[in-house]
């Protein structure tokens, strides 16, 4: 059985009914409820031959005075039962035979600015640590690695070997490149070549602290017709977090990095000192995979949980004197 975290973890904006025609059953239920109410309305029945005040003083209708009555609970029961049959849902459930064929191509900026120490020991070293944690979280998913500064180069082809990723990360730094000026647009050619053979929507993950207008423009053109996405992981102390008194990323830099991610119809994730940024990046990768790759995934029928609301209502009819006049 699906747990509550899975059940309520979907996108509520996708709410719909799996069997919407069942909602038409509400019409006869409402009409029948109105008939029950009119049947118990002594004032309406006797008003043609007796004044309203006199009927009210002479009649005794306990069910009508109660907030909880058989008639009203019948209506609640009918509405809930109809909603259950209609099958409310707002998320898809992965198939047990689903295989993750997506690729994650990590583009790591090793330019001079990544050696700043606003986050200890440096932006570059923390980026490596974050990558290792992300790769560990993803398990045996396909991962490739590109490094860039003034130029970009494939450091590791796409592989499922986590240990290989860790080995390559340990030896990467700016001394490997002839030009240490950061040029994010240079990563387009090697990253797109790596994901060109991907069998599922994939992700290009940039770990950097800066970008420019040229990169934003070129990423917009390159990803316009792509199912793949770009996630930018901003490496640097976020001005919103307070930091440790050192100068980190400015609001302008963060805005530019966000534009770069949006150019690849993705999101920017800011660096955090805990694991929340890793979770955000991982969730962004998964969301792109499931949102685009398989629209045929079955929808999770959440109506079954409403059965627990029907049980106490049904138990009320075991009370002495609780009947409905059909």
Automatic annotation (TrEMBL):
Record InterPro entries: UPF0353/GerABKA_families, VWF_A, vWFA_dom_sf
Pfam families with a match to the protein in the record: VWA_2
Key words of the record: Membrane, Transmembrane, Transmembrane helix
Transmembrane parts of this sequence: 20-37, 73-90
SUPFAM superfamilies linked: vWA-like
Domain VWFA: 103-285
Name of the molecule in the record: Transporter
Organism, as annotated: Vibrio coralliirubri
């Amino acid at each position: 059985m699906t747990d509550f975290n899975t059940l309520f973890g979907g996108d509520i904006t996708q709410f719909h009914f799996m069997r919407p025609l069942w909602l038409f059953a509400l019409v006869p239920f409402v009409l029948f409820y109105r008939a029950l109410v009119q049947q118990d309305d002594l004032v309406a029945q006797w008003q043609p031959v007796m004044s309203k005040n006199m009927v009210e003083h002479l009649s005794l209708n306990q069910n009508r005075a109660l907030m909880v009555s058989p008639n009203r609970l019948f209506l609640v029961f009918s509405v809930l039962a109809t909603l259950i049959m209609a099958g409310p849902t707002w998320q898809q459930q992965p198939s047990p035979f689903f295989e993750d064929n997506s690729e994650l191509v990590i583009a790591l900026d090793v330019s001079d600015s990544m050696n700043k120490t606003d986050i200890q020991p440096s932006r570059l070293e923390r980026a490596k640590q974050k990558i290792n944690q992300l790769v560990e979280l993803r398990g045996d998913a396909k991962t490739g690695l590109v490094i860039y500064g003034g130029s970009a180069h494939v450091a590791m082809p796409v592989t499922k070997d986590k240990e290989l990723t860790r080995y390559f990360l340990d030896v990467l730094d700016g001394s490997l490149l002839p030009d240490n000026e950061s040029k994010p647009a240079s990563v387009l050619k090697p990253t797109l070549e790596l994901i060109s053979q991907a069998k599922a929507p994939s992700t290009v993950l940039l770990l950097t602290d800066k970008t420019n207008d040229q990169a934003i423009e070129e990423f917009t053109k390159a990803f316009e017709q792509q199912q793949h996405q770009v996630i930018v992981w901003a490496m640097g102390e976020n001005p919103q977090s307070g930091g440790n008194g050192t100068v980190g990323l400015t609001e302008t830099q963060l805005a530019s990095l966000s534009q770069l991610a949006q150019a690849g119809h993705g999101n920017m994730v800011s660096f955090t000192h805990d694991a929340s940024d890793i979770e955000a990046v991982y969730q962004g990768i998964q969301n792109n995979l499931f949102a685009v790759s398989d629209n045929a995934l079955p929808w999770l029928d959440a109506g079954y949980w409403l059965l627990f609301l029907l049980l106490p209502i049904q138990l009320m009819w075991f009370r002495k004197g609780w009947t409905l006049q059909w």
